[in-house]
Structure formats: C-alpha cells, structure tokens
Amino acid sequence: MLVVDGCRPDEITPALTPRLAALRDAGSNFPAARSLPVMETIPNHVMMMSGVRPDRSGVPANSIFDRTDGVVRDLDRSTDLHFPTSWSGCRSSASPPAPC
Length: 100
Known about the structure:
Layout lengths: L17 H9 L14 H10 L3 H4 L5 E4 L4 E4 L13 H5 L8
C-alpha cells in the first residue's frame, strides 16, 4: 500500500510523476478518499489500515500528552494502537495469502 499525502489526484500524471502514475495505473486507486474526522496524517493512516475511527484505534492525533511520562510525545509505541491493522494477519502467518 502506498499513501501519497498532500498531493492532489490531478497532480499525478505521466508528465509530472511518471513512476507514481504508473503505480496508480497498475493497481487500485481511490482518488475520492477523504480524511475523517481528524485531519492529521497518523490517525488517518491508522484508519486506513485498521478500518476504525480514532476513538476505537487509540490514535486520535499525531501526538498526545502522556500523563504517565508527563510529556508530549508521538504515538509511536506499539501499545498505542488498540485495534489490529489489515497487516496484522499477514505478519502472523508463515505464508500470507496473496492480498498481503
């Protein structure tokens, strides 16, 4: 899976981005995808990979105030994610199915 953040779909053309246009044309494309309900990169990527909104995934923003540590930190710990992603089944299988 490739996510291009901050690029309009009409900017991906063979003239401007030939390799990216070729990847798009050879795979599945979702040009009307929208970010909901948080417009930050990390929560939106987690929503794409888990299929659940931030209140279920445990990733509501790019960073949070961690009361335990008393600091603002990125959500980069495996324990931050409270929901399995679409890749979870792929990693747990010795020979993943074709979509993985």
